């Protein structure tokens, strides 16, 4: 039954992508692209809706892979006992998260933008997870209601995508929203993997 659901979802995604590509116009007038220093970032953000659909697909496949992996092998417990390693990872996680926000804020100057910054932020969360216990990590996950916040951020991205069609274009804010969406999505996958596999 699970494979039937997977095949149905895959079929729906194929239909959706065929519809998007058939009715999409990718002709770009570079004379009108003067808002940022990087034309790649400008084109990327103007087609944000399509990129968001692909991101949802990537995270859905990652979550599905974790779900199937959890039932394929027995659980194993691994621990980090060395305090100096925990302290170093905790310090490094703060530095990486701070640097990732900097990348998001100035994302309009690089092709990756908020997405690559969100991946860097997710890496910082991974380092933080390795420096703490599962109980503390689970407490932070529940305290900040990460799943709900991630859905609200995704909704805001859609709203800003519609607003941008009317001429408004706030690239910095959109990059920051993308950054938090990717980072929280990474947090959800990381939390699911740690909780069900018992890594920390």
From TrEMBL:
Q: What keywords sit in the KW lines? A: Cell membrane, Membrane, Transmembrane, Transmembrane helix
Q: Where are the transmembrane segments?
A: 7-26, 52-71, 87-106, 112-130, 151-167, 173-194
What's the source species for this entry? Thermosipho affectus
Q: Which domain of life is it from?
A: Bacteria
Family per similarity comment: Belongs to the CPA3 antiporters (TC 2.A.63) subunit B family.
Decide whether keyword Membrane is in the record. Answer: yes
Q: What is this protein called?
A: Cation:proton antiporter
Establish whether keyword DNA-binding is in the entry: no
Q: Where does the Na+/H+ antiporter MnhB subunit-related protein domain lie?
A: 85-183
Q: Topology versus the membrane, per the UniProt entry?
A: Multi-pass membrane protein
Entry's localization field:
Cell membrane
Query: Pfam families in the record, alphabetically?
Result: MnhB
